[in-house]
Amino acid sequence: RLAVQHYKGKPYGLGIWNTPFLRDLYPREEIERLLRYKRKVDPRGILNPGKFFSSSGKAGLLQKILFQKNVFDVGMATSQWLLFKFLSTIPVQKLRTSVSVPKESLGEIASTVYACAQCGTCVARCPVYRATGDETLSARGKLLTLKKALQQGEVDLSGVLSLYFCLRCGRCDDECQVGMEHRSLFERAESLMASSAAFPLEEIRQFIFEVEQSAEFQRFLDVVRTGFDQRIDEQRNTFSRYRVTIDEDLCLNCGTCVDACMYSVRRRDPADPRKVMVGNEALCRACGACLERCPQVAHGKMATRVELHPEYLRLDDPYWSAPVVANLDLEATTGKIPVSGTGQGDPHRGFGNDGIRFGHFHIVGPAQNLLYESTEDAISVGLGRKPKYLFFEGETLRTEPSRLLRLKTPILFDVLPIDGNGEILRALITAAEALGTRVTIRLPDFERFETVIGEKVPMTIPRLTSTEMIELLNGKALPRPLREDFPDLFEIEIDEAILLRLGEIRQFFGDLPLLSAVLRVGREDIDSGLRPVGSLRERIESLVSSAFDLLCLASDYDPERLCYPTTEAVPAVHRFLVEGKIRHRFSIVASGGIRSAADTQKTVQRGANGVKIDWPLLLTLDPHARQKVGRGESVTIHHDSSTSAKRITNLVKVWNIQIIEVLGASGFKDIKKTVGEENRLLIFDDIEERVYDILHSPERIERNRQQNRLRIEKEFDLAGFGWRYSQLRDMMKPVPSPHRFCDIHLPPSCHKIFDRDHVWPASLIASVARMAAGDRKTLFLAHVENKGNLGDGFDAISLRFREDPDRIPEERLDGVSTAVRLSPLLQNKTPFMGAGMSVG
Question: Exposed (0-12), middle (13-18) or buried (19+): which is 787, by Cβ within 10 Å?
Answer without folding.
Answer: middle
